Amino acid sequence: MSAADHRAWEEELAGYVLGALDPAEREAVESHVAGCERCRSDLRWIGAAIEVLPASVEPHEPPARLRRRLLAAVRAEARAADATATVPGRWRDAVARTLRPGLAYVAAGVLVVGGAIGYVAGQSGKADETTVTARATASAPAGTEATVVRSGDAGTLRTTGLPQPGGSGVYQVWIRDGDVIEPSTTFVVDRAGAGVAAIPAGLESGDAVMVTREPRGGSDAPTTAPLLRAPLG
Amino acid sequence: MGLVRDREQRAFEVVYDRHGGAAYSLAYRILGDPRAAEDATQEAFLSIWRSGARYDPLRGSVRNWVFGVVRNRAIDALRRGSAKRTPKLAMDGGELIEKQPSADQTEAEAIRRETAKEVRSRLDELPGEQSQVIELAYFGGFTHSEIAEMLQMPIGTVKGRMRLGLEKIRAGLAEEML
Questions:
Q1: DSSP letter string over A56-71?
Q2: Measured between CA atoms, how close is A56 to chain B, in angstroms?
Q3: Which of A111, B8, B94, B143 sits between 20 and 30 A of B121, alpha carbons compared?
Q4: B1-87 in CATH: which number?
Q5: Which CATH number applies to B95-178: 3.40.50.150, 1.10.10.10, 1.20.1250.20, 3.40.1190.10?
Q6: Which H or E run contains A142?
Q7: Contact call for A59 and B22, based on CB within 8 A
Q8: Could you report the predicted ipTM of this complex, rounded to two decimals?
């Protein structure tokens, strides 16, 4: 390959690490890099420059409710999910690197022991889960389906067939208890129309789970008609 | 199962506490709106929780992994139109800064502010036309061709400026490590 050809690829690599390529260009770069050691090396070198950009951002303190919501969602998912299939086992790597970068592998090794014990213990642990099928309402697009997997007071809602909310919208989960409707988590769906929402609490006292489309950030009370209803019996 | 779940949740909590502030700040920088930044950060961290197994320690730091996920979510939100997609460049950065009472600033935040200031001053050393295209791509989510159209210049010029700008940033990093 000529020097001019390589210069052209170098410019594409800059666009690649900055996320400035369209999908076809990105695929072309990935295909080329897979077979070109010189470009792989250049990609590692130039890629380090990108790490500077987030560090240049003016800091803003996230609202405390964001941490509370995330931890509640994670707790609910951990309770409700199939432990052996969904526990992100390599979290030990992430936390080890976060805590002590120089000791990542030692720390990871220590945590593996706990993880292995947990995996063995988790093989038999789904006895308290029940699955409820939600009904799509007339407001939902054809083909919309959802289930709620309950584990005690918490659960996980999984949807298929909902369009991406678009604009400034999200989907929001609600727990209905008679005349009272309490807000729960918000979620979006991926390009294939699949969505997952952790429901941290409220399933034992509620009589139905509902889903509506709401403005981003969610609402305190539903502002649109329910798209899905799952009776909690 | 409680043991491993507790460990994983604590791990997630540590990662959020270490990187959540910077991640939210990045989303805020991209989206320019606190509620949209909150949504994008929430989506990103839930995605990180669900895909923790995809973190490969050999491919970089946790912080950069988190930044990558958050940037993608924020740019997706921009493209969905959940925040106004307008270029936000370094020259108007001062207007985007949310003024907070000094009493509310934690020590960690003060350090982050100082670090950000130092890094920005290094980026400010780049020729304006290079930092402009880099910021439009990274923070604005614009492609080569969109930037070329916006700035009314040949796409080759955009690509060349991006590459030169990144080379200068990278060379500056290499010098610091000597």
A1: TSPP-PPPHHHHHHHH
A2: 4
A3: B143
A4: 1.10.1740.10
A5: 1.10.10.10
A6: none
A7: yes
A8: 0.76
